[in-house]
C-alpha cells in the first residue's frame, strides 16, 4: 500500500519540501533548514502541516462513559471547549498511545474528538468500537482522520498570526487547552490553544477540502516534522513509537513521566495495573541528559554506568538547535535518575560522558 | 541544480578530492550536504593517521541523519580542518571551500583513476 498524503502534498512539494515517511504518511520533514524552522518557532512563528495525526469522533449518550473507560485522564472534568492530554493504555497499564481529548461544544450532537498519533486511526477506531460493543454502550465512533486537515501554528507570535486570519474570533481569550469553533479565512475551523513545541500556539482543524485556503491565510514560516521533533525533544515531550511503543518500548505513564494524566479515581482499562505500580513505585524512569563529550546521541544507543554496565537506552536524541548542545531522552533505573548523575552514552560504540538533566532542557 | 566543480574528482559516496602539489584535500559535495541538511557534528581523522582507499575516516551528522565518510585514496593525513569542530555548518555553507575536511599525502596516485570525473558524478546525482 502506498503512503497516505496530506491534502497540501503538492503545495509542500512546490515549496521545496523534503519528505519522510511518518506513521504511514508521506510528510514534509524540512523545507530548507531544520535549524531555521526551529528558530522561527522559538523566536516568532512557524506553521506545521500535521494532517497525518489521526482524528476520532465519539458521540451519543454514553460517549463520556466510553471515553472515560478507554483513557487514563478524567474526561468527566472537561467542560465543552476544554481539552486534556491523556494516555491510552492496555490491561497491563502499558501506553498504547498518547492523545489530546477535546470536549466539543454542545451542538450537532457531537461530543468528543480525540487525536491519536499518526497511523493509529484504524487501531483506535477498532478499539473504541469493540469495547463499546463489549460493554453495550450507546455511542457512535467515527474515524474522521481524512475529514480534517490539521495545522499547528506555534511560537510567540502565534496569537497575532492566527488572529489576523480569524478577525472575528477572540482567540486571546482562550487559555491553554481551551478550544472553540472559529472562522479562519472564512472557513469554520476547530481552533485549540494546544501544541507540542513548548511555545504558545494553536492547532487548527479545518475541512480537508479547505486546507489550502486556511494554510495560505496563516502567515508563518512553513516547518517540517524535523523541527517539530527537535522542538518537542527540547521540552522532553514523548514521541510515540520511539519514547514509548507497546512492542519495542513498553512503558507505563508512571515510567514515562506522565503520571499526571492517570486519574486512579476513575475506572479505565489498565487502572488496576497502574494502581499497583503507583503503590509499589517504578524501577525505571524517563530522564533527559546532555552529553558532556562531543557527539550526538541517537535513538537506540546504550546508556551505561561509568563502569561500563549497560543500564538503559536512548529513546530520542539530537543536537539541540536552541542550545547547540547534544541532548537526549531515555530510560534508566531510578537510582541513576537524579539531576547531575554522570552516566555514559555509547555513541557508535564509543563511551561519551553524559549528565542527567530533568527536562525541559530550555527555560520556558 | 547542485554545484559540481570541474577542478576535482568524486566518489560515489559523495566525497570530493582536489590536488594541490603533493597534497590532496577532501570534503563532501554540495549534493551530499543538501541531502543531509543542517550539519551539526563532524568527526575527522587525526594528523598522522594512515588511511587506505575506502576506509571510513569519520562521520558527518546532521540533525536528521548520520553519514559515514570514506577515504577516496590511500595515504597519510597531514591536516584536518579543526574549524569544523566549532562551526560544522561550514559544510553546508561552503562545501568546496571552508567546509573542507582533511588533507592527505597520497601513497598511490594511480588510485585517482578509480575516482569519478565531474561529468560522471553529475550523471550520478541527476
Automatic annotation (TrEMBL), chain A:
It catalyses: N(6)-[(R)-S(8)-aminomethyldihydrolipoyl]-L-lysyl-[protein] + (6S)-5,6,7,8-tetrahydrofolate = N(6)-[(R)-dihydrolipoyl]-L-lysyl-[protein] + (6R)-5,10-methylene-5,6,7,8-tetrahydrofolate + NH4(+). Keywords: Aminotransferase, Methyltransferase, Transferase. InterPro entries: GcvT, GcvT/YgfZ/DmdA, GcvT/YgfZ_C, GcvT_bac, GcvT_C, GCVT_N, TrmE/GcvT-like. Residues 286-361 form the Aminomethyltransferase C-terminal domain. One of its GO terms (biological process) is methylation. The keyword Transferase applies. One of its GO terms (molecular function) is methyltransferase activity. Its EC number is 2.1.2.10. GO terms for cellular component: glycine cleavage complex. Transmembrane segments: none annotated. Residues 8-265 form the GCVT N-terminal domain. It is an enzyme of class 2 (transferase). Substrate binds at residue 203. Coiled coil: none annotated. Belongs to the GcvT family. NCBIfam families: gcvT, PRK00389.1. The glycine cleavage system is composed of four proteins: P, T, L and H. The glycine cleavage system catalyzes the degradation of glycine. This is Probable aminomethyltransferase. The gene is gcvT.
TrEMBL record, chain B:
The keyword Iron-sulfur does not apply. GO terms for cellular component: cytoplasm; glycine cleavage complex. Gene3D superfamilies: 2.40.50.100. It comes from the Archaea. CDD domains: GCS_H (cd06848). GO terms for biological process: glycine decarboxylation via glycine cleavage system; protein lipoylation. Its cofactor is (R)-lipoate. Keywords: Lipoyl. The keyword Disulfide bond does not apply. It holds the Pfam family GCV_H. InterPro entries: 2-oxoA_DH_lipoyl-BS, Biotin_lipoyl, GCV_H, GCV_H/Fam206, GCV_H_sub, Single_hybrid_motif. The modification N6-lipoyllysine is found at residue 64. Residues 23-105 form the Lipoyl-binding domain. Residues 105-117 have a biased composition (Acidic residues). Residues 105-126 are annotated as: Disordered. Transmembrane segments: none annotated. The glycine cleavage system catalyzes the degradation of glycine. The H protein shuttles the methylamine group of glycine from the P protein to the T protein. Belongs to the GcvH family. PANTHER family: GLYCINE CLEAVAGE SYSTEM H PROTEIN, GLYCINE CLEAVAGE SYSTEM H PROTEIN-RELATED. The glycine cleavage system is composed of four proteins: P, T, L and H. This is Probable glycine cleavage system H protein. It comes from Haloferax mediterranei (strain ATCC 33500 / DSM 1411 / JCM 8866 / NBRC 14739 / NCIMB 2177 / R-4) (Halobacterium mediterranei).
Amino acid at each position: 500500500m502506498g503512503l497516505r498524503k496530506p491534502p497540501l502534498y503538492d503545495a509542500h512539494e512546490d515549496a521545496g519540501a523534503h519528505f519522510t515517511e511518518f506513521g504511514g504518511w508521506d510528510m514534509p520533514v524540512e523545507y530548507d533548514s531544520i535549524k531555521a524552522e526551529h528558530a522561527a518557532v522559538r523566536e516568532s512563528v512557524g506553521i506545521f502541516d500535521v494532517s497525518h495525526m489521526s482524528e476520532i469522533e465519539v458521540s451519543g449518550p454514553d460517549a463520556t462513559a466510553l471515553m472515560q473507560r478507554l483513557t487514563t485522564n478524567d474526561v468527566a472534568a472537561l467542560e465543552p471547549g476544554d481539552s486534556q492530554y491523556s494516555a491510552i493504555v492496555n490491561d497491563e497499564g502499558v501506553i498504547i498511545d498518547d492523545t489530546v481529548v477535546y470536549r466539543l461544544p454542545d451542538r450537532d450532537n457531537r461530543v468528543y474528538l480525540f487525536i491519536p498519533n499518526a497511523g493509529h486511526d484504524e487501531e483506535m477506531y477498532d478499539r473504541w468500537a469493540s469495547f463499546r460493543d463489549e460493554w453495550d454502550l450507546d455511542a457512535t465512533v467515527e474515524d474522521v482522520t481524512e475529514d480534517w486537515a490539521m495545522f499547528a501554528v506555534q511560537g510567540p507570535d502565534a496569537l497575532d498570526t492566527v488572529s489576523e486570519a480569524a478577525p472575528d474570533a477572540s482567540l486571546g481569550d482562550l487559555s491553554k487547552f481551551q478550544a472553540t469553533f472559529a472562522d479562519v479565512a472564512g472557513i469554520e475551523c476547530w481552533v485549540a490553544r494546544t501544541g507540542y513545541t513548548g511555545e504558545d500556539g494553536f492547532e487548527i482543524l479545518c475541512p480537508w477540502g479547505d486546507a489550502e485556503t486556511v494554510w495560505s491565510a496563516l502567515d508563518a514560516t512553513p516547518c517540517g516534522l524535523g523541527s517539530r521533533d527537535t522542538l518537542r525533544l527540547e521540552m522532553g515531550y514523548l514521541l510515540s513509537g520511539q519514547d514509548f511503543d507497546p512492542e519495542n518500548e513498553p512503558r507505563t505513564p508512571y515510567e514515562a513521566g506522565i503520571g499526571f494524566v492517570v486519574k486512579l479515581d476513575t475506572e479505565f482499562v489498565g487502572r488496576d495495573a497502574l494502581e499497583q505500580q503507583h503503590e509499589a513505585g517504578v524501577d525505571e524512569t524517563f530522564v533527559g541528559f546532555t552529553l558532556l563529550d562531543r557527539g550526538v546521541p541517537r535513538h537506540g544507543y546504550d546508556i551505561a554506568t561509568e563502569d561500563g554496565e549497560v543500564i538503559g537506552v536512548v529513546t530520542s536524541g539530537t543536537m539541540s538547535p536552541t542550545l547547540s548542545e547534544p541532548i537526549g531522552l531515555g530510560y534508566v533505573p531510578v537510582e541513576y535518575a537524579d539531576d547531575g548523575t554522570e552516566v555514559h552514552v555509547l555513541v557508535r560504540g564509543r563511551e561519551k560522558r553524559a549528565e542527567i538533566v530533568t527536562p525541559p532542557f530550555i527555560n520556558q | 541544480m547542485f554545484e559540481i566543480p570541474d577542478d576535482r574528482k568524486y566518489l560515489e559516496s559523495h566525497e570530493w578530492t582536489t590536488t594541490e602539489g603533493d597534497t590532496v584535500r577532501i570534503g563532501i559535495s554540495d549534493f551530499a550536504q543538501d541531502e543531509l541538511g543542517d550539519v551539526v557534528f563532524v568527526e575527522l581523522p587525526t594528523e598522522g593517521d594512515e588511511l587506505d582507499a575506502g576506509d571510513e575516516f569519520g562521520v558527518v551528522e546532521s540533525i536528521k541523519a548520520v553519514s559515514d565518510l570514506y577515504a577516496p585514496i590511500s595515504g597519510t593525513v597531514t591536516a584536518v580542518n579543526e574549524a569544523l569542530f566549532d562551526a560544522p555548518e561550514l559544510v553546508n555553507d561552503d562545501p568546496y571551500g571552508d567546509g573542507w575536511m582533511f588533507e592527505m599525502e597520497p601513497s598511490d596516485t594511480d588510485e585517482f583513476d578509480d575516482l569519478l570525473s565531474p561529468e560522471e558524478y553529475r550523471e550520478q546525482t541527476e
